[in-house]
Amino acid sequence: MSKTRTLAISSTAALALALGGCALGGPIPDASTPITQSEAELGAEAHPQLLAEFGGAMTGPQAQYVEGVGKNIAVQSGLGNAQSSFTVSLVNSPVNNAFAIPGGYIYTTRQLVTLMNNEAELAGVLGHEVAHVALRHSQRRQQAAQTNQLLGVGAAILSSVLLGSNPLGQQLGQAALQGSQMLTLKFSRSQELEADVKGIEYLNSAGYDPRAMATVLASLAAQNALDARLQGRDNATLPEWASTHPDPASRVQAALSRAQGMTGVTNRDTFLTRIDGLTYGDDPAQGLVEGNQFIHPDLRLAFRTPQGFYMVNGTRAVTINGQSGKAQFTTGPYNGNLQTYVNNVFAALSQQQQIRPASIRTTTVNGLQAAYGVARVPQGNSAVDVTVYAYEFANDRAYHFLAITPAGQSGTFNSMYQSVRRISQQEADNVVPRKLDVITVGSGDTVASLASRMAYPSAQEERFRVLNGLSSSETVRAGQKVKIVVRGR
């Protein structure tokens, strides 16, 4: 969560309006049609807002390298006849994601880049996104849904994932719980496979090894499975809130079959050298998730989640997920009155269905002034409890949890509410980010010895293998470049 002091809904709504300007009533161009003027205008309007929602565009040699690879693969599509027709951005987000919007705007998160192991994989991911644009998948999804808002599906996806398929879920998802990682469409399985096929064609025409599409999908599937196990989730396919591209594991074999007999370069060592030093995981400027604790050195705050819940740190909110409840921690405009603040959060939820707490109570949590309210909301034959719990950190600064639990179980998050605290400057100074360190394997190095250098207290070897695309039985050899994750400024 960044230091931005605005409700997440404000920027999300603005972006929805920007992308909603695309007229979908007319014929949709085919994949051979270059970028149209309306698509270019649409992308140009949405681009700065998308950057803001995904942590901002990174600069420097690493970002320039990603931009160069992306533009090279993008021209293979015929959407534009020059690299200047495209805008490729490396964004400062800790989730594995890549996406593109009409107008030739292509994005990948730094976290997804750290998972890759060669330049062909980077080109494959970016080419896949270009293919979605060339095939006009966003427009086709929206036309099928009979809506003219490019982001409308994103809100519905979040609602079903975060709150279940119910009217209140959609209302809350659209009004307040839309995380920054859900601002692009979730495509159908057929569209994903279609984009894989096109992406492989782009790889082949650019001289890359087309099999890279399969290897990067395999790495993403392995990372999703590892994350699920470490977070205690039953569903190991992927955390839906963190990626717009479902089920990578099922697409690996299809990609391998499509690339059979094709060859090309991977540029592995060049790639690894160029991405050396990328931030891995959370950026301290956005706060860090460490186990069950979230700590933000700039905002000087921390809290812990109950056992059995896991967190996702977005640009504008921290999402807390579990079987017995969902929540987000974020901020909003504050005029110095916590009760008004809590009422305003509830009011933002009441656009279609009136949601009011029975009362708003004040208290003190670890020396912080706090206020909270709980509203019982009927849901068919059952009901849910919606809780807003807010804290004052300064005369002009407050933060709050917005939580949803089954009726009668609003106490599920009590320990989390009571854990919010102000951290000392020394504790803030001790927060050190993780970085990617590309090293050369020595003659005496083994997977185990290299994994022991990973900056994690557990699952070191599993993390090392997934990071480097190694199976459970593969070894390393002297002279080979590999990635490890270390602590470093």
From TrEMBL:
Keywords: Hydrolase, Metal-binding, Metalloprotease, Protease, Signal, Zinc. Its cofactor is Zn(2+). Residues 437-484 form the LysM domain. Residues 1-25 form the signal peptide. Its EC number is 3.4.24.-. Pfam families: LysM (PF01476), Peptidase_M48 (PF01435). GO terms for molecular function: metallopeptidase activity. It is an enzyme of class 3 (hydrolase). PROSITE patterns: LYSM, PROKAR_LIPOPROTEIN. InterPro entries: LysM (IPR018392), LysM_dom_sf (IPR036779), Mito/Outer_Membr_Metalloprot (IPR051156), Peptidase_M48 (IPR001915). Gene3D superfamilies: LysM domain, Metalloproteases ('zincins'), catalytic domain. This is M48 family metalloprotease. It comes from Qipengyuania polymorpha.
